[in-house]
Structure of histidine kinase:
Amino acid sequence: MIAPKNHDREAERLELLESYAILDTQLEEDYDNLVLLASEICGTPISIITLLDKDRQWFKAHHGLDVSETERKYSFCGHTIHEPSNVFVIEDARVDERFHDNPIVVGDPNVVFYAGVTLSGASGLPLGTLCVIDHEPKKLTKSQLSALSILSDQVMNLLNLRKKKMELEKANVELELANHELDNFAAVAAHDLKSPLNNIITLSNCLEDFYAPKMDDEGKQIIGFIKSSSETLKKLITGLLSYSKSGQYSIEDKTNILLTDLQKTINDLFGVQKECSIKVKSELDAIYANKVAVEQILINLIANAVKYNDKSKIEIELEIKEQSGFYEFLVKDNGPGIHKDNQKKIFKIFEVVSEKDRYGEKGTGIGLATVKKVVEGLGGKISVTSQIGEGATFTFTIKSPIVLESSMV
C-alpha cells in the first residue's frame, strides 16, 4: 500500500477548508440527493462527498456506507487531489500496487472500483472529492465521468453558497454593530454639544441686550451671525438626536390608537396656524401600532408640508387605510411639489433640496431621513409621488396585526 502524500500547499488547503465551516456538520438533503444521483448515474452501490481534513477523510454525504469518516492514510481521495485532470479512476484496486493491500480494499467496505472527481476551491486548492465505489471491477463511460464532474461542480456550488451566506450573515452582524455604535456616538456627541451651545446662545442674547447700544453696526452684525449660526447648529444637533433615537422604536410595542385622539393631537400641534387646514379621512376607528413612532412620523411629514408650502391657504389631508397585513398612511398637501430628480434624495440624511422654507429658514436634511428610519424600523416602506405645482403625497406603511381584535376598535 502507498499512502497518499500531503498536498504541495497543504497549510493553505486546510485553511481554505476550515473557512467553509462544513466539517462535522449535520447531514443535509441537498448533498444527500447529489450522492444518490451519482450512484444512479454510475451504477455503483456507494457514493460519497469526501472532505480531506488533516488526518481523516470526513463524509458530508454518503450513500451505501454507514461510517461518517475514515483515516486519511487509507483514502483513495487523498490520491485524487494530486491528479492534474482532477479525475482519478481505479478499475480494480486489487491489482494496483498503491491499494492491493489497503485495509479498505481487503476488508470493509471492500473497495475494488473507485472513481473520484476533485472538489476545487479558490486558486484550485482541493477540498475533497465526489466519488463512487463498487465491490467489483468496473469501467465508466465518458458520459458517466462527465456527469460525475458536473455533479462535483454542484457540490462546490452548494459549498460556496454556504460560505457566501456565512460571510453575509457576519457582515450583517458587523454592520448592525457599526450602525448601533454610530447611533450611540451621534447621540452622545449631540447631547454633549447642546450644553455649551445653549451657553453660547444665552451669552449672545445677553451681549445683544446689554451692550447693543454701545456697539457699532459691524458689532451688531457679528452678534447676529453668532446667534443665527448657533440656532442653525442647535437645529442640527436636535435633528441628530432624533435620528439616533429613531431606530429604538420596537415593532412589538403596540397600543390601541383611536383616530379621534390622533386627529386631536395633530390639531393641537398645528391648529394655531389659522392658514392651515388638516383633514383626517379613514374608515377605521382605531389602529394598533406603536403610538409614539406613528405620531413622530406624522408630525414630521405634516410639519414639512406646512413649512415648505407656498400657498396662502395650506391644505393637508391625512388618509389611513388597512391593507393585507399593513396600515397605509397618505399625507397629501397642496404645496409646490417635488421635482422627480429629488424624490429619492429627500430621504437621504443631510440632503437639502429647498433653499428656504416659507419662514425663510433652511432645513437640516435630517427630518425625512429620520422618518424613513422609523418607518423601516416598523417593518414598512415610504415613498413620495409629486408633480411640480400640484403638491406632494407621502405614502408610508407599517405592519398591522392580521386580525384586529374587536376590543381594540
About this structure: The chain is about 40% helix and 20% strand.
